[in-house]
Each structure stands twice: as structure tokens, then as C-alpha cells.
Amino acid sequence: MIEHVESRGLPSGSILEEEVLVLFTAQAHHYVTPKFYTETKPQTGKVVPTWNYAATQAYGRASIFFDSEAPETGVFLSKQIRDLSQYAEETVMKHDGGEGRPKAWQVDDAPEKYIELLQKGIIGIEIQLDRLESKFKMSQEMGAGDREGVANGFEKLGNDVRERIAETVRLRGEIKDEAARKSGLASRKVNDSSA
After folding, report:
1. Residues near 89 by Cβ (< 8 Å), separated by ≥ 6?
2. 2-66+123-194, superfamily in CATH?
3. Which ranges in the chain are annotated with CATH 2.30.110.10?
4. What is the pLDDT of residues 84-113, one digit of tens each?
């Protein structure tokens, strides 16, 4: 991307004309054995292995901050470093100074010249989002019994990732069932009004 910006003679922080795509995948993804399908497998045997995952595609136009001497690069990177550090310290690490917890580390705790030196090795990317597209493949296409079999199967395997998958399978199933219920109510109202 930097070569693209430089070849057009554009300065650091310029918005690229072409659309970019960034793919975000959930940490919780896993192989699903057909043995988890507690309804369909015993009844018909028509099951195969699959993979459960969640992903989001972000589309937009990117600005690339690559010139460490450019003022706009310094401003952009300083804000990103501070915001990310604050989020990680307070939200991820729970370093908020409350109830015996330590206070959050702050960028200003490090020498300014050291931060400036490290910042020279960072390339910043800002994306102005045009659209997001998400995909959940968490056994929601299965019936309630099979979904519960998948969730129970993952819970029995243990560990955080598998427990998050079990939670997501149940949640996506509830969303599917609620949408089907609303759709059924809507179609009944149409049928009642046309009678």
C-alpha cells in the first residue's frame, strides 16, 4: 500500500482511491464432529463434519500513515497508541485502580524520546468504513436438538474457546428461533387479514 501511495506522489495520510477489505475472525472457531448431532445422526445418519466460525468483512477506503517525519502521521499514531494502551490496560487487564487493582500504565510513563523512536517503526492504517458484512456459522442451521448437542459436546470438551463456541451456538440458535417465530407471526397476521 505504501508503494501505491508513493508511486502516485501522495503524502502520508492520503486516502487510497481503491476499496480495501479487512477480514476479522472470531477467536472461537472449531471443528464440529457429527457425533454432536444428537437428533439427526441417530434418525437419518445424514450428517457430516463441519467447522463453526464467525467472521466480519470490513470494506472501505484506507489512509496509510507511513512517513514518520510527517506531522499528520505523528498525530494519528500518538492517538492510536494512547487509545489502544488505555483500552488494553483498563478493559483487558482491568488495571483501573479499583478494589486493590493496579492503576493503568500510560504512554507518558515511558520516556517521550523512547516512544518517538518506537513510533517510527509503526505504519498506521485508518479505514473509513463503507459497509460491514458478517457471517456466523455456529450450527444455527441445525434443529434445536442438534444445536444443543453441539453446545453440550463443546462444553464437555472444556477450555475457554470451546465454552465460547457453546455459548455462541446457543445464542445464534435463539436468534434464529426468534426470527422464525416473528416471521410466523407476521405470516399469520397476513393470512388472518386476507381471510
Report:
1. 95, 104, 105, 106
2. Electron Transport, Fmn-binding Protein; Chain A (2.30.110.10)
3. 2-66+123-194
4. 999 999 999 999 898 889 999 999 999 999
Q: Find where cell 422464525 sits.
A: 180
What is the Cβ-side half-sphere exposure of residue 126, based on CA atoms within 13 angstroms? 15
Give the mean pLDDT of the chain.
91
| Cα-based torsion angle of the residue sequence 33, 39, 40, 45 in order, rounded to the nearest 10 degrees | 80
Contacts 24+ apart (CB under 8 A), 156-164: 161/27, 161/28, 161/30, 162/28, 162/30, 164/27, 164/28
CA pair distance 57, 133, nearest whole angstrom: 5
User: C-alpha grid cell for residue 5?
Assistant: 501511495
Q: Is 46 helix (H, G, I), strand (E, B) or coil?
A: coil
Q: Name the one residue in this structure whose C-alpha cell is 475472525.
A: 25
pTM over 0.85: no
Predicted confidence (pLDDT) at residue 195 exceeds the cutoff of 70: no
